[in-house]
Amino acid sequence: MIYNPASGRKVDHKSTIHNCLFSFGIEYEIYETKGNLDCMNKIMNLDIDNYSAIVPVGGDGTFHEAINGLMRRKDGKKIPMGFLPNGSGDDLAGGLDMPIGDVNMGLEYIGKGDVIKLDVIKILIDHESEQELDDKIASNPSLKKEDYLRYSMINCSLCISANCARNAAPMKPYIGHHAYTIQTAIEIIKKREEKFNIFVDKESLA
Questions:
Q1: DSSP string for 69-121
Q2: Considering all CA atoms of the chain, what is the largest pairwise distance in Å, rounded to the nearest integer?
Q3: Which run of H or E residues covers position 203?
Q4: Could you say which DSSP state residue 178 is in?
Q5: How many CB atoms lie within 10 A of CB 195?
Q6: Does 121 reside within a domain?
Q7: Per-residue pLDDT tens over the stretch 94-126
């Protein structure tokens, strides 16, 4: 269990997790994250052979770090990953038909050992290939790979929805998921037009 105590809802589920896993006869360890990217770095460097699953507890940001940590492992090893939603939005959990903040449902799936496959999106920023990025980092070690290569399982979007998600972030600690509603109204009022080009296999869709 990789537990983010600073995630959106800030509800302490540790006792619920312990009691439920104990009833299932599942042994576990829990690690509390200390700050930004701690979840990602923990999973990247974890002795993964000692575990049967990784379960982040938090919101979409925590899950995003977890996926990036698993996909960035130098040894390429993968194990199943569970999700216990405790964020303000919980988009990923909602996409899996789990009610927002329903840790108990997530624990039930873990107890059953149910595993499903999910697609992961690989995003390269300002580079044509990962090799090109690696070569640039080799010549300039000050560059950080995570600034140009990311993985995502959560919705990806452009324009108004992306702006809403980004600009709602500072409000989330104070008003939770209502931040998205307020920011959506603000973005609609702006009536901002944004233009971009989309290429598929180097061919423009315009």
A1: HHHT-TT-----B--EE-SSS-HHHHHTTPPTT-HHHHHHHHHHT-------E
A2: 56
A3: strand 203-204
A4: H
A5: 6
A6: no
A7: 888 888 888 999 999 999 988 899 899 898 988
Confidence of residue 173 (pLDDT cuts 50, 70, 90): confident
Tell me: do 8 and 81 sit in the same domain: yes
Q: Is the pLDDT of residue 206 over 70?
A: no
pLDDT at 48 over 90: yes
Task: Give the range of the structural domain holding residue 38, as residue numbers without chain letter.
Answer: 2-112
Q: Are 107 and 179 members of one domain?
A: no
Of 84, 112, 140, which closes a domain? Answer: 112
Band of pLDDT at residue 22, cut at 50, 70 and 90: very high
Q: Let me know: does 49 contact 57? Beta carbons within 8 Å.
A: no
- Supply the mean pLDDT for the chain: 89
Give me the number of domains the chain comprises: 2
Going by pLDDT thresholds of 50, 70 and 90, the confidence category of residue 200 is: confident
Q: What pTM did the predictor assign?
A: 0.80
181 in the same domain as 99? no
Of 47, 60, 97, 201, the active-site residue reads: 60
97 a catalytic residue: no
Domain-located, residue 126: no
Residue 161 CA to residue 192 CA, distance in Å, equals 12
CA–CA distances in Å: residue 188 to residues 83, 164, 166, 179, 192: 32, 10, 15, 14, 8
Are both 162 and 90 inside the same structural domain?
no
